[in-house]
Specification:
mainly alpha; single chain; about 60% helix; about 170 residues; 5 helices; 2 domains
């Protein structure tokens, strides 16, 4: 008996989705560590991990924006006193502030999960630093701007990793 892909009725196949057992062609098959799935089953599986409600990205963005704005002010103030050492302080503040901001954002969103939510929180960190970056740029304090840039480059991925549950160490 000849079987055809459920999405492409003209393509012969003997491959089946391991979840719904529909026939799928190689274009529709998604390879997983435990076998092949159709794209529809993969989407359903991904949705089971999205627990965020519609307003969570707004809350996450708002919290990370406000906290990043405060951290950026602190980096800017520290830069005016520390000079060259702000580069090292920017690294330390970026990691520490990123973890702190991520922890507070997790509480605000009640540990719900969604890829859009993770990106909104990381974007909040970047956008929260922009007003201070503009101020530093227009006042000509480029060294402090560099320190702030280091802070943003470290803090934003730290927040993303913290909220998404990515663990870099065991």
């Amino acid at each position: 008996m000849t079987t055809f892909c459920y999405a492409h009725p003209t393509r012969e196949t003997s491959l089946r989705c391991k979840r719904c057992e529909r026939y799928i062609c190689t274009a529709c098959a998604v390879h997983t560590p435990t076998g092949y799935l159709c794209k529809e089953c993969v989407r359903q599986h991904e949705k089971s991990f999205d627990t965020a409600v519609w307003y969570d990205p707004l809350i996450g963005f708002g919290v990370t924006f406000a906290l990043s704005l405060i951290a950026s002010i602190l980096v800017g103030l520290a830069a005016s006193f520390l000079g060259f050492y702000i580069l090292f302080v920017g690294v330390a503040l970026g990691g520490g502030a990123g973890a702190f901001i991520g922890n507070l954002a997790l509480r605000a969103i009640k540990k719900r999960r969604s890829k859009i939510l993770f990106m909104a929180c990381a974007a909040g960190v970047v956008v929260g630093a922009l007003p201070i970056a503009a101020l530093l740029f227009f006042t000509g304090n480029l060294f402090a701007l560099l320190g702030l840039g280091i802070y943003v480059v470290i803090a934003a991925p730290t927040v993303y990793a913290r909220i998404s549950g990515i663990q870099l160490t065991h």
